[in-house]
Amino acid sequence: MTVPKYAAQGIIGQMIVGILSDTHGRADMAAKAVDVLLQNGAEHLIHCGDVGSREVLDAMAGHPAIFVFGNNDCDFCGLSQYAKDLQITCGNTHGKIQLDDKKAVVTHGDDQVLVRRLIREQQIDYLFLGHTHEKHDERVGKIHIINPGALYRASLKTVAILDTSTDGVRFIPIPG
Q: Which residue, 103, 41, 94, 28, is CA-closest to 66?
């Protein structure tokens, strides 16, 4: 089976995007979350940082995916190389992607200077982030900001599904 390369600067057509964040090395939760996202039609996966381990990336392997580093990720070189071996794109601290004709940035959310600048400039359509461990869906100007919640240290563990054709977001609880 050929898996299309998911480029950090690539174009993705209208589709269902699965968004997860803050796994903090919990590969079991990442595997559950990816399964749920795929069962709900996710064609591409976005991880908004605090991956925490190579085993979390294993859960995303075999699917078009991008991840960024969070403030609790420390093995940048190891995770980046491992992701490359799995054909998962590493966006470093923030990855730029295009969803059909919409521009998006994936970042962890801990760099508030970056987040504020992106919001102030209004040059993107989507901002995907994590860090707060709380699900969030809001518009600020033209930017649709989505935080899927967390799969670690959250009373309700959640992921998010974005349908780019309708701009609709749905949060899905993950038992665990």
A: 94
Please name the residues in contact with 93: beta carbons below 8 A apart, sequence gap of 6 or more: 68, 69, 107, 108, 111, 114
Q: Which residues contact 62 (CB under 8 A, 6 or more apart)?
A: 1, 3, 86
Q: Is residue 1 classed exposed, middle or buried when 0-12, 13-18 and 19+ CB atoms within 10 A define those classes? A: exposed
CA distance 89 to 84: 7
The H-assigned helical ranges of the chain are 27-39, 54-60, 76-85, 112-121
Query: Which domains are delineated in the chain?
Result: 11-173 (3.60.21.10)
- Report the predicted TM-score, pTM, of the whole model to 2 decimal places: 0.91
E strands in 43-142: 44-47, 65-67, 89-90, 94-99, 102-107, 126-128, 135-140
Distance of alpha carbon 10 from alpha carbon 2, whole angstroms: 17
Instruction: Report d(CA 12, CA 14) in Å as an integer.
Output: 7
Place of tokens 């090395």: 25
pLDDT tens string 113-142: 999 999 999 999 999 999 999 999 999 999
